[in-house]
Amino acid sequence: MNTLSIITTGGTIDKIYYDDQSDYQIGEPEIARILRAMNVAFDWEIQALMRKDSLHMTEADRQLIAQTIAESTCGHVLITHGTDSMIETARVLEPIPDKVMVMTGALNPARFIDSDAVFNIGCAVGAIQALPPGVWIAMNGKIWPPSQVQKNRQANRFEPVSSA
User: Fold this and answer.
1) What per-residue confidence (pLDDT) applies to 2?
2) What does the alpha-carbon distance between residue 160 and residue 147 come to, in Å, rounded to a whole number?
3) Taking a C-beta distance cutoff of 8 angstroms, is the pair 115, 144 a contact?
């Protein structure tokens, strides 16, 4: 891995809580702050493609993500994405050849002390260096192909697709 390409799309990982508005808004990508704080030993570049909650992602947004990755000269791409429609976007990326693409996000904003963001990003960075080409989901300490994972909203975690 020469340079890690990072594409940010928004989602909970980048959310900021505004007390005066009593709501969340998506702010600047947090991954740059996290990677600098962890003093990582690799080169990376960030492209903030959009700032959307994944519930508001459209098919055009997913096509833009796919086109951006397909046109990139980087062979390793980490995508931060909202968790609610991460799997749908991953399926759109599956036809892209010859690239290792790992998607991750957070179930709590990265700015929160108990956020899973740093852990998920660390897992994704490790995975992207060891996985074969394809698209993968890195959440809750595990790596899955998109067809084998689902978000369990009640338990607030990703888990294997049930065989029922």
Assistant:
1) 82
2) 9
3) no
